[in-house]
Amino acid sequence: MKNLFQFLWRNNYTIFFVLLEVLSISLVIRNNNFQNTSAFNSSNYLTGSVMEAISNVNEYIGLKTTNRYLASENARLHTLLSGNRDRAATGTAGNFVYTPCKVINNSVYRQANYLTLDKGSLDGIRAEMGVISSQGVVGIVKNVSPHFSTVMSLLHKDASISARFRKNNYFGPLSWDGKDPSYATLRDIARHVKISAGDTIVTTSYSSIFPTDIPIGIVASYEAAPGENFYAVRVTLSTDFRNLDYVYVINNILQQEQQELEAQTEEDDS
Predict the structure, then answer these.
(1) pLDDT score for 93
(2) Which of 15, 197, 213, 250 is the most buried (most CB within 10 A)?
(3) pLDDT in the model for residue 45
(4) Whether the predicted pLDDT of 226 surpasses 90
């Protein structure tokens, strides 16, 4: 308190001058319409600018929460839509449940590319689950820890998924050639199949990992080597692997039952 009094005493003339200036400006503004209006407009502009800046900061801070909410809502909608497709096709309830995950690590330009997700076994994630983005197929879960999981990207030399033409259902294995991350190759398509650039390629119903009709890409070009009976179809991938933020891990709740039955059938024939 003593220091405060000393400060006020040392600066009493300056403080008195400032108070007189404020009083003078206040009187001028109060008693003159033009100055009053100008001050009011300036005050509104300043207040609006400050409020807008605060709003922008709050909006930026809230983006993380908003993104997580949107990812969760999209996962719920995916599950509902998947159920509707299954019911329409088979008269049964949907088998697929979607879990939103954030991509916390990703590689694109290696021969064996992987992603790391921020959820693991404690969130119900396990190996051999499919992974998609809002754009299309991403890959398959490889390894899982309690809090994280790694995904074998479609951009992996050993990755291969069943893919088909949406327009006519002809299908074959689709894999990456290890070169351009924007393209993959669909093989074993017979030469009598009518193909056009721009044809849509989607997942088949023959996999226990992915639901049917998940986008994979569109036909860029196709060719068959001399003497070959099958086309090699170059596919522009729907997913931009260089720009992945949130993805969805797909749990086929009947996957184990299907795989066990198929394995038993193979054993019976061996």
Answers:
(1) 38
(2) 250
(3) 44
(4) no
Q: Does residue 29 contact residue 35 with C-beta atoms inside 8 Å? A: yes
Same domain, 130 and 243: yes
**Which of 69, 106, 118 shows the shortest CA–CA distance to 244?**
106
Q: What is the pTM of this model?
A: 0.68
Model confidence at 4, in pLDDT bands (50, 70, 90)? low
Q: Are residues 79 and 123 in the same domain?
A: yes
Could you tell me if 86 and 196 lie in one domain?
A: yes
Closest CA relative to residue 128, chosen from 95, 159, 106: 159
Per residue in 51-62, pLDDT (tens digit) is: 445 545 555 555
Residue-level pLDDT at 8: 53
Q: At what angle do helices 33-61 and 63-90 cross, to 10 degrees?
A: 50
What is the chain's length?
270
From the list 254, 253, 261, 252, the residue with the least C-alpha distance to 214 is 252
Same domain, 75 and 40: no
Task: Work out the mean pLDDT of the chain and round it to a whole number.
Answer: 79
C-alpha dihedral sign at 41, 47, 53, 58: negative
21: in domain: yes
Backbone φ, ψ for residue 21 (5° rounding): -65, -45
Q: Are 35 and 132 in a shared domain?
A: no
